[in-house]
Write a structure and sequence with these properties.
Elements (H helix, E strand, L loop, with lengths): L6 E5 L4 H13 L3 E5 L10 H4 L10 E4 L2 E4 L1 H12 L10 H15 L1 H15 L5 H18 L13 H11 L12 H11 L17
Parallel strand pairs: 1-2
Antiparallel strand pairs: 1-3, 3-4
Helix pairs in contact: 1-3, 1-7, 4-5, 4-7, 5-6
The protein binds glutathione.
Glutathione binds next to helix 3.
Amino acid sequence: MTPAKPIRLYRHPLSGHAHRVELFLSLLGLPCELIAVDMVRGAHKAPDFIAKNNPFGQVPVIEDGDVAIADSNAILIYLATRYDSTGRWLPRDAVAATRVQQWLSVAAGQLAYGPSMARLAVVFGARLDLDRAQAIGRQLYDVLDGYLAERRFLVGDTPTIADIAIYSYTAHAPEGGVSLDPYGNVRAWLARIEALQGFVAMRRSAPPDPV
Ligand SMILES: N[C@@H](CCC(=O)N[C@@H](CS)C(=O)NCC(=O)O)C(=O)O
């Protein structure tokens, strides 16, 4: 199934949350229109943007016809449920679907409060506890590296939206001073995602100066 009109993705080019949606749209081969949200000028808090089912005024948001959806993980669920007829990206089996959700929770938890926030501090100068964010990142990758030692993807033998949700901020973790050098299994998993047909990268930001 394909949408009648291109899906509109409201995003910022340096947002990993938005990138995970852009990546998944591309992997599914769905037509889309990328719309830049001028976050510097506060366009994400404008009433018309909040009115897109987006109560927190954040990117990303998609519009698919008259359906507007905010929150990157919610968008991944929507796109997989609506457009992936194979059921590969979001398995229907109860246990596999639950395992996917487990990683979506990590994406909204440790990944958001760790590598994503560390990058927010370093790249965008956000005033937050960088040491704590970096420590959460290292704890996350200590676990993830062990988990991936025997696995090609996070759930099952083929990629799911769990991999997409964890990918973007992990690939860009070094920009927040969370090095992936110690984590060979994580780096091999990133490479497997980057080898998928339809992969699109997120623009890199300069890594922090070494301390
Ligand atoms: N839970 C949201 C988080 C999205 C998010 O944090 N977006 C950031 C940009 S990466 C944002 O819009 N920040 C502005 C704000 O929170 O006011 C999701 O998964 O989409």
